[in-house]
Amino acid sequence: MTGPMVERHRDTTSRPHIIDVHHHFFPSNLNKASSNEKVGWRTPEENLPWTPELSLRYMDASGIDIAILSFPAIASGSVGQENRDLARSRNRAMADLCRAHPHRFGFFATLPFLDDIEGALAEIAYALDELMADGIALSSSYGEGADATYVGDDRYDPIWRQLNKRSATVFLHGAQTASSTPYPHPFLGIPITEVPNETFKAAAHLIVTGRKRKYPDVRIILAHLGGSTPFLAARVAVLSGHMGCNLSPDEIMEDFKSFYYDTALSAYPTTLTFMQSFVGPERILFGTDFPAASSDTVGWYTNHVENFYAANPKKLKKVMSDNALSLFPRFKNHPRAVEHYCSL
Fold first, then answer.
1. Terminal-residue alpha carbon distance, the chain
2. Cβ atoms < 10 Å from Cβ of 90
3. pTM higher than 0.85 for the full model?
4. Tens digit of pLDDT for each residue in 12-38?
């Protein structure tokens, strides 16, 4: 682990602009203790209750200029006004934080339970047009157990059609869904063992159903370097064709390479080397997963990102900010971004 947060602070005149695309918003009425117990995870005690000031202190100490907030998607529940109101209240709260700190926060809007197509479409319009959200956060699947439905399902086509029409950016996070067997050990809870595979299953589902290719203007960020996606993509490329998928192996690999991948809780020399050959630095974005993880934990992964690209400052800038600025151009007006671009 790294030392205290303050030890990560660097001279802002020499470091690259940093945008964290994977930074969670925990509303005050969220019972994290209860949800943690269900999935086998411990949110750091020092990060609860979460406040914007907690994130700002962490960002200042870590040299992060902007964090794009996201609330874990409403992946279970029922179609109805209660779910719509819950999503609306959380999006308004995140929008309020962005207005209060316009140079520090952006946000991905959350949607009602996705089976509520009408409600989801209404919230997309409200969030993007009225609240000026930077994108939309989606879960890998919606519902529980045998009733779970992955985001590439036909029923969600109207949502993808609307997102494509708007050239929206989507932050896709694996659902905290238990598999058919219990997680193997208290040290290996659902966020560690299952979430990365859920991200992969959603990405693969979008591809083999043709939805990724049908709606190419949606820019999709996969959390945690895509989980197991980079390592299983070639398996899908050939074996799904054997099972009847009409896309060629090359087309499937091309679609996997069209995602963006964030570094949150996943950066290590071996994974970064693989991603370098898989998609190159142009598709990799910096992410932390704070406050779900401690500053020391996040710092360990961040150090690996910085060390991996230390010999190539241009690639480091791509990962830490340039790729995010291409997706979220409004942040080019940030004082640090202006300073960066004027120096090029």
1. 34
2. 20
3. yes
4. 445 668 999 999 999 887 766 666 667
